[in-house]
Specification:
Elements (H helix, E strand, L loop, with lengths): L3 E5 L10 H9 L2 E4 L16 E4 L2 E2 L2 E2 L3 H12 L5 E5 L9 H10 L4 E4 L4 H8 L13 E5 L13 H6 L3 E5 L5 H10 L7 E6 L7 E6 L3 H7 L6 E5 L6 H4 L11 E4 L3 H13 L3 E4 L3 E5 L4 H8 L6 E4 L2 H13 L11 E4 L2 H8 L14 H10 L6 E7 L5 H8 L3 E12 L5 H8 L5 E4 L2 H10 L2 H4 L6 E4 L2 H9 L13 H12 L1
Parallel strand pairs: 1-6, 1-7, 2-3, 2-6, 8-9, 13-14, 13-20, 16-17, 16-18, 18-19, 20-21
Antiparallel strand pairs: 4-5, 9-12, 10-11, 10-12, 15-19
Helix pairs in contact: 2-3, 11-12, 13-14, 16-18
Length: 502
Amino acid sequence: MANVFLVGAGPGDPGMLTLRAKEIIETCDIMIYDYLANADFLKWCKPECEILYVGKKGGDHTLPQDKINDLIVEKSRSGKIVCRLKGGDPYVFGRGGEEGEELVEAGIDFEVVPGITAGVAAPAYAGIPVTHRDHTTSVCFITGHEDPTKEESGNNWSVYGRSNSTLVFYMGVGNLPMIAKNLMDNGRAPDTPVALVRWGTRCNQTSFVSTLENVAEEARARDWKAPSIIIVGGVCGLHDKLGWFEKKPMLGQGVVVTRAREQASGLVDILRGHGACVHEFPTIRVEPLSDYVDVETAILQLARYQWTVFTSVNGVKFFWQQLKEIGLDSRIFGGMQIAAIGPATADALRERGIEPDFVPEKYVAEHVVKGLLERGIQGADVLIPRAKVAREVLPRELKEAGCNVTVLPVYETKLVQATGDEIVAALDNGDIQYVTFTSSSTVENFFDLVDPDVFRKYPDVKIASIGPVTTETVKRFGFTPAIEPDEYTIPGLVAELVRDAG
């Protein structure tokens, strides 16, 4: 079996990566990736994976192609699984064919994992179908940057000029005046629509439509840069009518997500769905305890409690893991009343066959206590599975109401980032407009990593807090959140971000 994979990473949108590509990324031992391959994909690599960047942009080569070829061959001979990750498709202007030839000459087996090429994806995200029966029945993919050592151009401008095909040029922004002139000199009408799409399918995508005679000047006026796809043809006239991606309400807005990576996917996916550029900066990591003897003891004595109060999805998750470890399931809660501090926690219980007896209208400990007291919890034996370190409001107030409360740590949170340099660099670049906090611990750990005095240098960056408890923690560091939803949930937080960005 092959141990080398030439993998297409697609055009940039994480959702455009194929399942096969993700599988290779998750299992490879050595990752060799390009400038156009979305670096977010590297988070799926194994912790011990060797990651090597060999990107090339605008003539700035980390490694020239022949050295990249040598590196792939060298790493392949280690017997480890090598993933050569390339933007788009390896065989569409990706030089994957050259890398494959080098592997064949070295006697090394390899596989190709095709990817969605930018020449199709970028136009689609800009509202441009590359074929359309009312405009054209063919499409031609063309390099806008040929090998400078070639004696003759491989581009047949006379054919391109006379053809009614949609023309899609890769890597052609620097040669745009020459491309436009050659097409017009060979018969294409000066008023032919032309579209440029930069960073197609990504959250920072931008595009515009011009004409063949004006596009070079307009691109110069806009200071248009690579990486861009150039589309020539009548289909470009559909840009405004069919454009959908650039209408997303948070397109281009940089949002920092500080949740633990294990919990962040929901928030990240919703934000990306609205077009936001998400900067994942998990300030905490959720980990199991080193010893679960106390948890197992509490589970075996569960019959002595009248109420169990779950305060987080993680509390549910880790509690159930221990149930399974000792061969038990949800039936052990028979006859007991169960509370969930919020809708996400309630859903986690429902997934395990438990319908909570109580979910408060406001998802903070104080409202949980109020609702529980209204349901006559006074004097009851109460179990609270939770994080090792958490707010004491709930157990304290229940104890004051006469309850016999057992706080049961079932997981712990730890600081995950070494420094805040990555976020500070993004702040310096103007890439961040919002920082989101979903708990007091995310606030505290964020400001452990990013000095509050440093953060004050960016007064235009808005803090979004999920609720009043988190807001109070933010204020302790000298800041006032600009955003706090009426409903203290992830959907509520996102709705307020969308409203503010709009």
